[in-house]
Amino acid sequence: MLLASTFIEMGAGTGWTVYPPLASIEYHSGGAVDFAIFSLHLSGLASLLGAINFIVTVLNMRVPGLKMNFIPLFV
Description:
Elements: H1 32-61
């Protein structure tokens, strides 16, 4: 989605920080910057859900009676 935002109008034009230029409405008139920022929000949400999935998998797949202190560093 972030790459797709470059094809909307004239692209996002934000640089590597993806910070929208807010000096004037002429720099942020289209939806390309909004689409780029939304795609980064979706990427962060996907990362958070992946981390939750990893933690829940470790908790559910351990042997009954195995305490949290004795789980190896990388399961």
